[in-house]
Request: fold
Amino acid sequence: MQTEDLNNSPARPPSRFLINAAIILWSIAFLVLCCRPLVSRVDTHSVFPVFTSAARNWLNGGDLYVRGRAEDFRYSPIVAAFFVPFDLLPLRVGEFLWRSLNFAVLVGGLLYCCRAGLPRPMTLNQKAAVFLLALPMSIGSLNNAQSNPLVMGLMLIAMAAVVEKRWTLCAAAITVATLFKLYPLSLGMLLLLFYPARLSWRLLVGLSVGFLLPFILQRAGYVLNQYAIWVRYLTAEDRQKGPIADWYRDFRAVWRVYVAPMSMRQYMIVQLTVAAIIAVICLIGRSQHRPMHQRLTMLLSLACCWMTVFGPATESATYILLAPIVAWMLVETYAEPSAWLRRIGYELVFGLFIASQCALWFGSRGKWFRDQLQPLPIAGTLLLMLLLVQALTSQNVSTPGPPLADTDVD
Reply:
């Protein structure tokens, strides 16, 4: 992808190529990844049956958290209740609607950020490039029907809502994302460093409602017991006690493969230390009075790196959280010829993600590549380092001017 294509250089006639390509490829992705259950088996490459099974257990008052299944349900009780309507539908229709919801929220979040000017005001060709670059990193998570695309889309919506000062929407998006996956709460905590008066009570109300709602939908004793089992389940799980293929793809796995085993206690210390460093970097950005779009981009990027590389439960599909971040950074560095060194770093990150995605095409050799070399957390760690360096060395970057007028589309 050439720099001048992303810049919409006035020396060249405007082109619709990137825009058309983005629309066509994302449309194909929707047809292949979301409509597939309507015409093929719904129990292959999908965790949707895990959700519907939990929904049936919820309705019948059964245990939600049962070990020993091919895929265990690890979500909060409200998520099991959320999937009850999907379970009442024909299986094919339910999975199609769930996949479509994931797809729509992710695409909607990206579009909302583009409209709000995140990571900065861009031309239509640059926006199209973001979508094109994010797609290959998103396919794996969209394919297996996990909730990661929904969670990422909600976090994107939250950040765009901050730009437009829609605080209730921001709090609602973070609340729903947190109810699905606990770690998006870290993004809410970072936002509280900047907007405590606006967000603190809204987040508190949203989270309180979300965690208390199950008591209205089921017997209080049953719900309380499920919460207790859920907490024990999450705190006792240690996948590194099993085969390497089952490990979480995080910094702990990289450290074990290349250095030495790390206990859960040691890893928790590392997690908290990195979280504290990220919080300090964000506070430095606040004290420097950086432009809002730079501040929010930095905040979301660092938070997503922590959620994946140092998060509590990172699988391969979780790395969709970094897809918009890598796409943003590549487009930004291509728009700045002087940033060639950073661009090489982001290209390496992107290449590692794509290589890991394609590795599954090569059977046992591909699995060896993903398990024994751990390219995903390595790519995430490199991305975090690049972002930290950028955050520390560009504190006084002025707000860039608006992009060229979007005259490349009739």
User: Anything to note?
Assistant: DSSP finds 20 helices and no strands in the chain. Residues 1-11, 396-410 have pLDDT under 50 and may be disordered. The first helix runs from residue 3 to 7.
